[in-house]
Write the structure tokens for this entry.
Amino acid sequence: MIHLKNMWMNGWGSMLKEDFPLLLKEPIVYLDSAASAQKPQTVLESIDSFYRSSYANIHRGQCSLAVRATEAYENARRTVADFIHANTNEIVFTKGTTESINLIASGYAQLLYPGDEVLVCIAEHHADFVPWQQACLRSGATFKVFDVLPSGKIDLADFQAKLSHKTKIVAMTHISNVLGMINPVRKISELAHQVGAKVLIDGAQSIAHIPVDIKDIDCDFLAFSGHKLYGPTGIGVLYGKKEALESLPPYQFGGDMIRRVTVEGTTFADVPARFEAGTTPFVETVGLAEAIRYVQRIGMEKIADHERFLTRNFLDQLQAVSGVLLVGESNEKHGIVSFNIKDIHPADIAFALAQEHICVRVGHHCAMPIHHRFGQELSLRVSFGLYNDESDISVFVNALKKAITLLRGN
Ligand code: PLP
């Protein structure tokens, strides 16, 4: 077996680029995997082959195609469950992280009362901030926000000061899509459970980059999207402990989520079917399962090591560039680095980088509160995937220096 260090030196990321047809075809440096990841050939083939060989609607027909399609869908649920160490009846397929969180928050909007509290982190993506704000507005519960430190680490003292027996749910991201910090989710779960609160972890930015084990985190809910995990768009996952899922009212009503419908009323199917109304994106679940097998073949620990190495290397080079202001001072970031360059608008830099075929993200990254907290309303964000390598970093840093010189006019 090749030692990891040698694999890096030999360009592990460049080796894996060959699995991604678009990265081979387009002359680009793709540093925007936090927005969405590129798709490996094997995922593209699994979707194509499903449409060609097994396509029929699931859970409805007796014909061989319908049986094959249903088996593929339920096998995908097993693959997802095994990946995060859950049981199959704890996995709900959704359209993505946003829908997974809305499903829980809209349920809580009916379960919360005035006097109850919801506690979220200031660094949440809008997908894990706004649904809770709205659930509190609708129910009369109080929306509370805990802070992060200047380093970007969560302010545990502030969290503990705001956590109380009134807290019904704590919602927090595993890895912030702006700060890139891995949050102490296990500790948060432990503290929240001591006061009887449920815990939702937004795994959108962790699921493809570090091993995620719900048994270890002991959260009640975990949400993530397929498209950030090298899988297709339109498919996401909501993990929920069985009793936590069972405590929620249905999210949408329609076919497949019922037990019995009469003129007098309707009873609902058991979880997880209760939350999968209508025709689900079942082809996409096959692509998602293939994406999971792909990262499992490489190994989540190796992917995490590789991206940690890239991030450290990148931060070393970035911080040597004059005028760099990181959003969150810490160097302990994982795969995501947001920053500004003093006195230059980040959109101008992103435009200059685009001329050099470098894809990064500019804006507030759907996380206005954390930008505001750091007094930087916008930022440039570089984010890594398993296919990135050191050459991507040097192309980026050279292009950044060139853009700064150009934009400063010296
Ligand atoms: N949460 C985090 C931390 C994210 O980074 C994102 C997307 O960037 C989301 C939630 C929303 O994911 P989606 O748009 O796939 O629903």
In short: The chain has 16 helices and 15 strands. The two ends are 50 Å apart (CA to CA). Residues 64-84 form the longest helix (21 residues). The mean pLDDT is 96.
